[in-house]
Structure formats: C-alpha cells, structure tokens
Specification:
It is built from nine helices and seven strands, in the order ββααβαβααβαβααβα. The protein has helices at about 30-45, 70-80, 100-115, 125-130, 140-150, 165-180, 215, 220-230, 240-245; strands at about 15-20, 25-30, 90-95, 120, 155-160, 185-190, 230-235. The strands form two sheets. A five-stranded parallel β-sheet has the order 4-5-6-3-7, with helices on both faces. The protein has a two-stranded antiparallel ribbon with strand order 1-2. Helix 6 (about 165-180) links the parallel strand 5 and strand 6.
C-alpha cells in the first residue's frame, strides 16, 4: 500500500504561501521549499563526513586557541558581506589549526543563510579524479570533473600545494584558478605552506629550507592568488594534539 506524501500545511504542496500586510496581499516562497533547496545544496557541496559537524558557531577560538579569534571574525565578516564583496580567502597555517573547519563553516553558512551554491574539494582528491578521467575504463571525462569546479559560485580548495609539483600539476592548478578568476567566481583556499616566493630563504642559517607556496604552485599562480583572495594567517596550537593530551 502506498503512503501519501506529507503535504506542507502552509502552502498545501504548491511551494508558495500567502502573506498579508494590512490590505496588501502577496505570495512568497514557503519555508518547506527553502529548506529543501538548502538540503540539496548542502548535499551537492560534497562536504566530507569528517567535517560535516564543522560550523562557524562551534569553531573554538577561546583559551589556548584565542589567537584564532581574528580568523574567525574574518570568516564571519566574509559571510556577512557576501556577495557584495566576493573576494576569496586564502587561509594559511600549520597543520591542525582549524583551516578546514573554518572553510567548511563558511560555505555551510552561505548555503543555509543565503542559498549560495558551494563546492568542497580536497586538492589531492581533485587531481586524482582528473587523472582517473584519462583512464578509458572510466566514463567521466576531464571536463565532467572540472565543470562543477569551474562553475560553482563558491569553491573551497583544501590543502593547496599538498601534491608534489610537476608540469601537469602546475598546468592544472593554473587552469582552475585562471578560469575562476576570469569568470569572477569566489574561491576559498587552505594551505599549510607559507606564502613566500619560490626559492625564498627561511629558517636558521645552514638549515634545510622548508618548501613554501611559491615552490608548490609556482610564482605565477601565487601572484594570481593575491589578486583573487584576502590572506588570513592562522596561528595557534594543533587542535588534535591538545585533544589527544586531554585524554591521557
């Protein structure tokens, strides 16, 4: 026996409800359709299960993490001002300071409060999917993989620079960033690499030099990021180490 689908009592399934203001009557979108759209957008955003809990409201910026307060405030301001100001963000910091949490919190808020289409991609996973599209046994083409990356209104590219640079990697990064830049689309990027030019000297004299963002994505693309994004530096303790220590 088929069970009848539940019908919204406000709009009776039409998706529109009447609103009265004195003698003026008009119709507006019903909350049931707004909620359904938000749920569909969240699903389409591809937020990994590991980060589904991440929101701006539960980002920890107190106690040992108080140095992260400016980053959290910048994230809230970004959401508040979008899309009037659609400049992207480049979140820079060491492992475990909450860059991905903040980036996911931003796009969840954009989806739920403003109905903005967003997409999350781990940099390594995206490159792997593009490479897999070259396999004849895989039905998806390179364009199938890249089209949503090019076209989504807001893209989160997590862990930029995490893959060892090759000419193919540099060409692919250039294609993604330049396409979004030319189309005036917003990109939020996280990276563990310091924002320094390729070959920059750092650290104690004689010590092995750590690679930086210029080394990993090339100077031309690092310069492009400066045009696309505001830089937010996140300095603090590794959340994971603090949690681990608390259970000892």
């Amino acid at each position: 026996m088929k069970v009848a689908a539940e019908v919204c009592p406000l709009c009776e399934g039409t998706g529109w409800k009447s609103v009265s203001s004195g003698t003026d009557r008009r119709v507006t979108r019903c909350e049931c359709r707004v909620q359904a759209r938000s749920e569909a957008l969240l699903k389409a955003a591809r937020i990994p299960k590991r980060y589904e809990h991440c929101e701006l409201s539960n980002f920890d910026y107190e106690g040992p993490h108080r140095t992260l307060f400016p980053a959290r405030m910048a994230a809230c301001k970004f959401v508040e001002e979008y899309p009037v100001d659609n400049t992207g963000l480049l979140l820079i910091g060491t492992i475990g300071v909450g860059k991905t949490h903040l980036a996911v919190g931003i796009i969840k808020e954009l989806v739920l409060s403003k109905g903005i289409a967003c997409l999350f991609y781990d940099y390594r996973e995206l490159l792997k999917e593009i490479q897999n599209s070259y396999n004849e046994s895989v039905k998806a083409t390179e364009l199938d993989v890249l089209r949503p990356v090019f076209e989504t209104e807001v893209l989160v590219l997590d862990e930029l620079g995490a893959v060892k640079p090759t000419e193919w990697v540099w060409d692919t990064v250039s294609l993604i960033l330049n396409t979004r830049y030319n189309d005036n689309r917003t990109t939020i990027i996280t990276t563990n690499f310091d924002d320094k030019p390729a070959g920059a000297i750092g650290g104690p004299r004689g010590a092995a030099r750590d690679e930086n963002l210029g080394d990993r994505i090339g100077e031309r693309m690092r310069s492009r990021l400066h045009e696309m994004c505001r830089i937010i530096r996140m300095e603090g303790s590794d959340f994971r180490q603090i949690r681990s220590a608390s259970f000892r």
